[in-house]
Amino acid sequence: MPAESLEDLFLIELKDVYDTEHRLLGALDELSQQTTQEEAQQAFEEHREETEQHIRNLEQAFQALGEEPEREECEGIQGMIEETEEFFEEKEPAEQVANRYAIGAAQKTERYEITAYENMLQWAQEADMDREIIEAIEANLADEQSALRDLQRMAEEFDYQQIVAV
Ligand SMILES: [Fe+2]
Ligand SMILES: [Fe+2]
């Protein structure tokens, strides 16, 4: 079916981000396994729980639109996840290098999600969609922004002395 309206565009992006969130469950598990830094590990685990809620919020949005929840392969996030897996498999990172990399990898996914949700929120508002839909997207966006802020702080406070070449 050709995409002709803002509602069509919203639904396409909704299916995409519904897939993104599912893939991130596994990705956050992987990141938490690859890191030895307790604070980051905890952040990944907490955000994984939030991600489960994001999935439920998106299901609410599908329902409010009268649509069955459906995943459409998000190649963007899949690429990011593969890149991260390859890094850990192929680069034999030292412990603190792996720790810092994991924070950066998570930051990238948050930025990706934030952009998707910012657009969707704008489209939902422009198309005057139900309050329920707008609130679902707003809730997810707020969590992603807060997750990104936490990661940015961890990146700033990281003990770089451990990985600076001498
Ligand atoms: Fe999310
Ligand atoms: Fe996220």
What's this entry about, in short?
Helices cover 79% and strands 0% of the residues. The protein has 166 residues and is mostly helical. It has one domain: Ferritin, core subunit, four-helix bundle (Ferritin, Up-down Bundle).
Structural features, described:
The protein is mainly alpha-helical. It has a single domain (6-163), classed as Ferritin, core subunit, four-helix bundle (Ferritin, Up-down Bundle). The protein contains five helices and no strands. Helix 1 runs antiparallel to helix 2 (38-64), helix 1 (6-34) packs antiparallel against helix 4 (95-126) and helix 2 runs antiparallel to helix 5 (131-157). The chain is elongated, with a radius of gyration of 17 Å. The model has no long low-confidence stretch (mean pLDDT 97). Bound molecules: fe (ii) ion (2 copies). One fe (ii) ion (FE2) is lined by residues 47, 110, 113, 144, 147. Residues 37-68 form a coiled coil. InterPro entries: DUF892_YciF-like, Ferritin-like, Ferritin-like_SF, YciF. Pfam families: DUF892.
What topology does this entry show?
Elements lengths: L5 H29 L3 H27 L10 H16 L4 H32 L4 H27 L9
Helix pairs in contact: 1-2, 1-3, 1-4, 2-5, 3-4, 4-5
The structure holds fe (ii) ion (2 copies).
The site of one fe (ii) ion (FE2) has 5 residues, from helix 4 and helix 5.
Overall SS class: mainly alpha
Q: Compute the CA-based radius of gyration.
A: 17 Å
End-to-end Cα distance: 59 Å
Low-confidence stretches: none
What's the main sheet like?
Answer: none
- Summed up, the helix count is 5
Quick check: average pLDDT?
Answer: 97
Number of strands: 0
Note the beta-strand portion: under 5%
- Give the name of the CATH architecture: Up-down Bundle
CATH class: Mainly Alpha
CATH superfamily: Ferritin, core subunit, four-helix bundle
The CATH topology annotation reads as Ferritin
Number of domains: 1
Shape: elongated
* Amount of helix: over 70%
